[in-house]
Design goal:
single chain; 101 residues; alpha+beta; two-stranded antiparallel sheet; two-stranded antiparallel ribbon; 6 strands; disordered C terminus
């Protein structure tokens, strides 16, 4: 780090946790097949040559998709006022899931 006029320069970046990344993928997926494909493209490491290693390379994308299978459907819950409501992963899921029920 280099010292600047206003103090020390801060090196920072954006890190997303694995759970947040999976939930973002879930919210964007249109069906289970799309979820499986998107999960397969997650980069989990880099080889010694600098090549990305994905969940598909490790042959775990299918297992990850199966573990998320139930989460793709909305959950029926009750508000504090006692009103039934559907909770879902994101706005894109609302019209797709609720329309098909």
């Amino acid at each position: 780090m280099n010292k600047t006029i206003n103090g020390y320069e801060r090196e920072d970046g954006f890190d997303i946790s694995a759970a947040s990344e999976l939930m973002a993928i879930l919210a964007l997926s249109k069906d289970l097949k799309d979820l499986r494909t998107r999960i397969g493209r997650i980069v989990v490491a880099y080889s010694l040559d600098g090549e990305p290693i994905t969940t598909e390379d490790l042959q775990v994308a299918g297992a990850m998709a199966v573990s998320m299978k139930e989460a793709i459907e909305p959950t029926l819950m009750q508000t504090l006022e006692g009103v039934p409501t559907l909770i879902h992963a994101g706005h894109s899921r609302t019209s797709l899931t609720v329309t098909h029920q």
